[in-house]
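Incident review: delayed structure delivery

Summary: a single-chain prediction request sat in the queue longer than the usual turnaround. Root cause was a stuck worker, restarted by the on-call engineer. No data loss occurred. The affected request and its eventual output are reproduced below so the record is complete for anyone auditing the incident later.

Affected input:
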Amino acid sequence: MLLFVLRDLDGGCNKLDNEKLDVNTTIAILERIKDIIEANKDYLTELDSAIGDADHGINMNRGFSKALEKVLNNQYADIGSVFKDVAMSLMSAVGGAAGPLYGTFFMRASMKLAGHKEADLELLAQAFREGLNGVIALGKAQPGDKTMVDALIPAIGALETAAKEGSSLKDGLAKALAMAEKGMKDTIPLVAKKGRASYLGERSAGHQDPGATSSCLILKAFYEALGN
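Output delivered after worker restart:
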């Protein structure tokens, strides 16, 4: 059985002590996503080799590298525009199902964030909910199907609850990350019902879903970039 290990980077990251996302913070988060995905690309590919096409880590690394390159070469007036460029980059650079799914997540989130120079926990939770709704509509996956939504659904639910309770942005993301990690690990015994892994039937059980893992890594980057 493959075990989940987050590969941390030497020296950590530059932490930002912000209670709201602005353009600079959003770009810093993207930098952290790129670094974490790059550090874990072999691990993601290892997971995908068991139940998929053995290219998830390579594809995700290429996609976020392209996204960061595009964002660093542009100037932005609002955070929604940053998310939109990330979405476009992922759709064009990430192969397989991951490109459209993650691209849709960031694109739908960007629509909620359009025109906003800052986003607090409540707005971020709303944007993530829109992103999740887009992923579900596109991929038709439900909880328990052994996909990325098994990590995203509990994580975003925790984010929304934290916002209602008046939690800080960092505390809300910490709660979301904890639930994402649980959802990710809970995919191990499941039989896949969607995607390439579904072709394996019962043989897909016993393996952690790579999409749920990359979703968890992205949420980890959001949390770490804001400071822990």
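Verification: Residues 1-17 have pLDDT under 50 and may be disordered.
Action items: add queue-age alerting; document worker restart procedure.
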